[in-house]
Amino acid sequence: MNSTTERAASTLDTFKAQTLSWEFKGGIIELALHRTPCNELGSVSLDEFEQFVSALDHFENSAHALIIYSELKAGFCAGADLRELYLRSSTMETAQAVRGVRDFLERIHRALNRIDASPLTTIAAVHGVTFGGGLELALACDLIIADKTARFAFPELRLGLIPGFGGIPRLKRDVGNAVIRDLLLTGRSFNASKAQQTGLVSQVVGEGEGLGAARATAAQLGKFDRRTAAAAKQFIKPIPYEELRREIDIFCELFSRPAVQAGLKKFVESKDAQPYLP
Amino acid sequence: MDFMATADTTLDEILNLAAAHFKVPREKLSPDDDFFQALGIDSLQTLDLLTKLENHFRVELPDYELQGVTDFRTLAGKIQARL
């Protein structure tokens, strides 16, 4: 590697943007989310997440693990930025709004599919609200470590939608259909203990201890041959590409219905700062 | 009589937990208070309280059961029903 390439490579090792930052050290990449109030995934988040995904090629030759976590007290991630979604879609004709939503979904699917398929072992260290797109981000990872404040939900039905970032096809890999029906059809949230009982979460730790536990797990992962680990992961963790594409189609069809705009409007205009109760 | 004593115990434990978790003086909380106002919390923090209560009482309380529940006494009844 010449000096120019070395400089370029080392500048990728740490990166700080508006909604996320990352640091590469000791074979482990730590991706920190920090968009207040709760890492809602909007257009800026997606732009920056795509930047991270582009950088993965550089890391995958020398890293063995990726940890994704949140620096915010409120939680890991509350899901899609519904305010941005409403404000943009409410000013457009339905067909144009649906095209915009499809474009967003296809981009985020590409990014999450890339994380899902990474030869690195990936760990989501979650706490607090891990809802909707936040749960979907965690599901793209190989392991979920939750602190005892974590709550998991797919609240999309409350808005007349289904999860659109790949949640249901990925959840089907990890838990039984009855659990998925419970989460999806009731829109309720599970605590970390329940999530561990269902097999969704691999470890539950004390409040604030998630990142520490993830680092210890990542250190353990570093003991094994990377190519073997990557081969094992590819063997045991299929990516349901066809179902993921169908999910986008179903989401876009549902999004075109007036009830969805009404649901988004109600959410945005709610006097409660964050209407998380079903 | 035993049931009522248990229900009162549950209510008392909830008030103590809520006061400690949200750093509100215990004596300022009453069973029939609106807990959103008494604790100064929103729905996000209510979920936090729910997690605390589920872990403490070792129960699972679907959060949709909290719809329309705004006072500690009714909340205690919901928890009690799961014990």
* CATH fold category name of chain A: 2-enoyl-CoA Hydratase, Chain A, domain 1
Order of helical and strand elements of chain A: HEEEHEEHHEEHEEHHEHEHHHH
Strand content of chain A: 15-25%
Structural class of chain A: alpha/beta
Helix and strand pattern of chain B: HHHH
Mean pLDDT of chain B: 90
General form of chain A? globular
Total strands of chain B: 0
Shape of chain B: globular
Largest sheet of chain B: none
Structural class of chain B: mainly alpha
Put simply, the count of helices of chain A is 12
Mean of all residue-level pLDDT scores of chain A: 92
- Number of separate domains of chain A: 1
Biggest sheet strand line-up of chain A: 1-2-3-4-6-8-11
Q: Could you list the spans of chain A in which at least 5 consecutive residues all have pLDDT below 50?
A: 1-9
State the low-pLDDT regions of chain B, or none. none
CATH-assigned homologous superfamily of chain A? 2-enoyl-CoA Hydratase, Chain A, domain 1
CATH architecture of chain A: Alpha-Beta Complex
What would a concise description of this structure say?
Chain A has 278 residues and is of the alpha/beta class. Chain A is built from twelve helices and eleven strands.
What does this structure look like?
- The complex is a heterodimer of chains A (about 280) and B (about 80).
- Chain A is of the alpha/beta class and about 280 residues long.
- Chain A has one domain: 2-enoyl-CoA Hydratase, Chain A, domain 1, CATH 3.90.226.10.
- Chain A is built from twelve helices and eleven strands.
- A seven-stranded mixed β-sheet of chain A has the order 1-2-3-4-6-8-11, sandwiched between helices. Chain A has a four-stranded mixed β-sheet with strand order 5-7-9-10.
- In chain A, α2 packs parallel to α4 (about 95-115).
- Chain A is globular, with a radius of gyration of 18 Å.
- Chain B contains four helices and no strands.
- Chain B has helices at about 1-20, 35-40, 45-55, 70-80.
- In chain B, α1 packs across α4.
- The mean pLDDT of chain B is about 90.
- The interface between A and B is medium-sized, with 22 and 16 residues.
